[in-house]
C-alpha cells in the first residue's frame, strides 16, 4: 500500500503512525483498512454466501420488458435456446434421444424393481420428468430418469416403514410422498440458494458411497440372475452371500443362470468394445434393448417360464395416472415420507449436479447449480403427482447422450416421446421378459459406478480422503445404504472439523542470497536466522483452533531451543509470526494471541507479526491488540521483521 496520510477517524496516535513508517526501508507500511460499518460488512458476507454468482448482473441497465424476458428465461431456459433452435441441432438431438430411449426402457424396469415398485412406475419416471426438466434445466447433456443408487436408497428406506409385498398400495403411496418431498427439498435448496450444503459430501466419500452402492445393487441382482426364490431382504454382503450359497444346491434355476450369464457377458462385451473404440458408443445403448427383445422372444417360444424362469409377467398399458390423491398429506406417513424424501432428494442432487458440471466442462458452458436444484425439484414434484418415483440425472444415459451428439435438452423430449409410445403400444410385449435379463442389465449399468481410477488418485493425493472413501464403501456393503450414507456425511464433516481444529503451521527459513523466506521442509536449503524463529500459520484463527495454535507455536519454540543448545547456537530472542495465510480471527483467537504474548515475555522472547491482512488488522485495532503488542512489532513482510530483529541484535552488541 502506498504511503498515504492516515484518516483522522482511525484510533491511532501520530507517533504510532511514525513507528510504522520508520521501520520499513522501502517506504511502505502495514495497511490500515478503512472502517466499515456493520451493515456493509453483513451485506457483503450475505452476498458472498448466497449470491456469489451475482445472479442479477445481466439485468443491469436493461429495460423492464427485457428484464421480464430474462426473468422468464432464468426459470425456463428453453425460451432462450428454443429461439435459436434449428434442424441441424434437431438431427443431433433426435439421434441422441432415440439412443438413450433404447437404453432407458430396460433400465427403468430394473430400477423400479430396486425401488420395489411396479415396472410401469419406472417407465413413467422417464416420461413426465424429462419433459419438465427439458423446459427448466440448464444442462444440455443430462438424461433424466430413475437411477440405480437413488432407487435402491428409496427402496431400502421405504421398506423399513411399509412391507411392499404385504401392503403394496400403501407402499406405493409412501413412495409418491417421498418423491414429492424430494422435490420440495430440492426446490427449497435452490430457491434459498443453499446449494453449498450439498457440497458437504466430499468427492472421496461420494466415490466410496457410489462404489459400495454399486456392489450392493449388483449383489441384489443375484436373486434374478440365479433364479433364487427365497432370497434375503437384507442388503449387506454377508447376508446376501449366505443367502446365495445356502440356496446353491436346490435354490438355483439352471435355465435362469444360463440366460442371465449369457446376456451379462454380451452386455459387458458390448461395453468393453465401446470403451475401447468410441465409434461404437451406440453399442452401449442398443445392447440392453437387444437383450430384452432377444430374451423375451426366447422365453416366449420356449416357454421356460413354466420351468421356473421368472418373468416380468404384467405391465399395464397406458400413460401415467394422477397420483395427487395417493400422496399422504396428513398422518404419520407424512413425516416418514418427508424424511425419506429429504435424503433421496439430496443424494439425487449430488449426483445430477456432478454429472451436469462434468459434461458442461467438456463442452465449455456453465450450469447454475441453484437453478438446477429448482429444475430437478419441480421435476420431482410434478413426477410425484403423475405416478413417478424420484428422478435425477443418470450418468450412464447422460454419457451415451453426450457421445450420441446431443445439442440441447430436446434429446430428453425425444426420449420421453419414445417412452410414451412404448407405454401406449408395446408394454404388453414385455410380459415374457426374463428377470435374469433385467438383472444382467442392472449389473452392467452399475459397473460404471465403481471408479477405480478415482480411488487410486485419491490414495495418491490424500490418505485421509482415502479413509473417508473406505469408510463410506464398507459402511454400505457391510451394513446398509443408509448407514453408508451416514458414514459418508460424518466423515466429510469430520475431515472439515479436523482441518479447522488442527491447522498446519510451518517453520520458515531464508533462501540463500535472497530476501525470500519459505518453508524449510519444502526448501531444505532455506537457512534459519540465528536468534529469530519464523513460523507461518496456514489457517484462520478461531475458537476451535486458537488454543492448539498457541500450544503448537510454544512447542515449536521449545524444540528449536533444544536444537540451538545441541548445536551451540544463540537462543531465539524473537518469534516472527507470518500471518499472510490467516484470513480471519475471532475474539478467542485474539485472546490466545494475548496469552501467547504473555508466555513469550516470560521466556524473554519478543513476538513480531508479519503481513497481517486487512480484516485481521481491523480486528486487532478494535481489540487494542496493536497497542498491546506495540505497532513497531507489526511488519509488512518477514524480511522487514528479520531486518528489525537483526538491527536490535547489532544495537545490543554495540552497547
Automatic annotation (TrEMBL):
- Superkingdom as given in the UniProt entry: Eukaryota
Segments forming domain STAS: 522-645
What keywords would UniProt list here? Membrane, Transmembrane, Transmembrane helix, Transport
GO CC, sorted alphabetically, is: membrane
Q: How does the protein associate with the membrane?
A: Multi-pass membrane protein
User: Which SUPFAM superfamilies would you find in this protein's record?
Assistant: SpoIIaa-like
Query: What PROSITE patterns has UniProt attached to this entry?
Result: EF_HAND_1 (PS00018), STAS (PS50801)
Do you know which InterPro entries this protein is assigned to?
EF_Hand_1_Ca_BS, SLC26A/SulP_dom, SLC26A/SulP_fam, STAS_dom, STAS_dom_sf
Q: Quote the Pfam families the UniProt record gives.
A: STAS, Sulfate_transp
Compartment annotation? Membrane
Q: Which GO terms describe its biological process?
A: transmembrane transport
The membrane spanning regions, by residue number, are: 68-85, 171-194, 200-219, 252-274, 280-301, 340-362, 374-396, 408-430, 436-454, 466-493
Q: Which PANTHER family did the record assign?
A: SULFATE TRANSPORTER
What protein does this entry describe?
Sulfate transporter
Instruction: Name the species this protein comes from.
Output: Rhynchospora pubera
